[in-house]
Specification:
Layout (H helix, E strand, L loop, with lengths): L8 E2 L5 E5 L2 E6 L2 E6 L4 E5 L3 E6 L4 H22 L2 E8 L4 E5 L2 E5 L6 E3 L6 E5 L4 E6 L2 H12 L11 E4 L18
Antiparallel strand pairs: 1-6, 2-3, 3-4, 5-6, 7-12, 7-13, 8-9, 9-10, 11-12
């Protein structure tokens, strides 16, 4: 049996769920999320805990068992606590400006980049316009938006300039050395 798939998912107070036609819906204080799971996966509740089970021991069923459990657990956490990612801008003149719920990025290019937030994502700019916090209830969307913003100016290995995750380590390379030439 799957080690991840057999773990129960605790349902906090204020979280409701339902399944209809292989689509699970989880509602909580922060919003509502839905996921359409595959055939052969069954979701049931026992004592305010969700249990995920599978019909057979086929390789695909075993893989989907753990995946479905992880996705449903992320849905429960998202509607109760939410998810966030923090990005830091490293470089002279690299700034972020908040325009409503959208942001304006100055990343050393000849033009500023206007980035529109998806409807379920919130931006918060901190630390004099060099730190961006991305918040939302869907873990995948939060990560995807953070990766898209990071891809606008990836950290380079020589000076470390660019957009990086808060907990990211950027390995540094030695630049050209000015030394004596063979004479």
């Amino acid at each position: 049996m799957s080690r991840i798939g057999k773990l129960p998912i605790a349902l906090p107070d204020g979280v409701n769920w339902g399944v209809s036609d292989r689509t699970i819906t989880v509602k909580g204080p922060k919003g509502e999320l839905t996921y359409r799971h595959e055939n052969g996966i069954e979701i049931k509740e026992d004592d305010r805990k969700l249990l995920i089970s599978r019909e057979s021991d086929l390789k695909q069923q075993r893989a989907l068992h753990g995946l479905t459990r992880a996705l449903v657990a992320n849905m429960v956490k998202g509607v109760t606590e939410g998810f966030s990612r923090e990005l830091n801008l490293i470089g002279v003149g690299f700034t972020i400006e908040q325009k409503g719920n959208d942001i304006l990025l100055n990343l050393g290019y000849s033009h500023a980049i206007y980035f529109q937030a998806p409807p379920e994502i919130e931006f918060e700019v901190q630390a004099k316009g060099t730190t961006l916090i991305i918040r939302g209830i869907d873990k995948q969307t939060v990560g995807q938006v953070a990766a898209k913003i990071r891809s606008l100016r990836k950290p380079e290995p020589y000076k470390g300039k660019g957009v990086r995750y808060h907990d990211e380590f950027v390995p540094r390379k030695a630049g050209k050395t000015v030394g004596s030439s063979a004479a």
